[in-house]
Design brief:
The complex is a heterodimer of chains A (233) and B (109). With 233 residues, chain A is of the alpha/beta class. Chain A contains nine helices and ten strands. Chain A has two domains: 69 residues, no CATH class; 152 residues, Rossmann fold (3-Layer(aba) Sandwich), CATH 3.40.50. A six-stranded parallel β-sheet of chain A has the order 7-6-5-8-9-10, with helices on both faces. In chain A, strands 2-1-4-3 form a four-stranded antiparallel β-sheet, sandwiched between helices. Chain A is elongated. Chain B has two helices and five strands; from the N terminus they run H-E-E-E-H-E-E. Chain B is globular and about 40 Å long. By secondary structure, chain B is α+β, with helices and mostly antiparallel strands. Chain B has one domain. The chains are: A alpha/beta (233), B alpha+beta (109). Chains A and B meet through helix 1 and strand 4 of A and helix 1, strand 1 and strand 5 of B.
Amino acid sequence: MKAETLATLNAERAARRPVILITDISDGTQRLVKAADFGADPLHAELEKQLRMGKSAMVEADGKKLFLNVYAPTARLVIIGAVHISQALAPLARSLDYDVTVVDPRTAFASPERFPDVKLIAEWPEEALPGLDIDHYTAFVAVTHDPKIDDPALLHAFEKNCFYIGALGSRKTHAKRGDRLKAQGVSEADFARIKAPIGLNIGAVSPSEIAVSIMAEITAELRMPRDAKAAGA
Amino acid sequence: MLNRDEDILQAAEAWQKAGHGVALATVVETWGSAPRPAGSNLVINDDGTFLGSVSGGCVEGAVVTEALDVIASGEPKLLEFGVADETAWNVGLSCGGTIRVFVEKVGQS
């Protein structure tokens, strides 16, 4: 591996930008492809598939055996609202390798007793979120049911282009949320990105079951190709 | 999407910049119950110091020895380890799997 390849690889990883290192194992020749350049690459279908799966693998192309080493950032989950659902959601997400942060300005909710071993920030989203460096590899969930807390948080999620944005609330609650957000200048396209009612429809009732339905929906968003998601919807 | 090997590649870069000969070993193929998935890295410097893993600890010793050769020659190598392997590199994986490990020098021109 060339020194400059390693330096670029480390720089991309530090910036939380996904890259794939392609090595021809017959002679060691290599190239590093940034996710932004996948579209123009002759191996774009394989690159996109392996990145989506987060899996490194050997592929064959033009009679050559090429190893695709995938370097994808750790996915994060930001939960707005230290509520009962979040108490089930945080440990479940951690078991799926997400870095989890819970934000809720209400200190009675955001207490370490209720959230042992979870990064917890008892501040308003406007104060807490800018410091979290939220990016595309972040799933964002707003579950306080309180527009004063959820709405500004959702604005931040749109701005950072989170790969998943979900908000708790019935269709009626969500329609009102739409009125409020659009009055603040949110585009129709951004509003349509919110998954609401949140989670896959599996008939979830208890907080733990709702947590399962949310993580299932986040997993589908992360792993499934776009056309398969459309077909399944 | 476990962000493994975080510090391993940073260490490889730091060692190389400090003037060490450095080799990078990567699991490129696995069969059966391999302990570490494809993409796992082990980095070795010319002192024999290493970080990371390519197995549960069973073949690292052999990989380090091979890596010192790769640092000296600059030529990459593809190693195979497994229970059915009859080659000189047969140290055996206690778990019964087979892995292929690609070893390359860092800092190739």
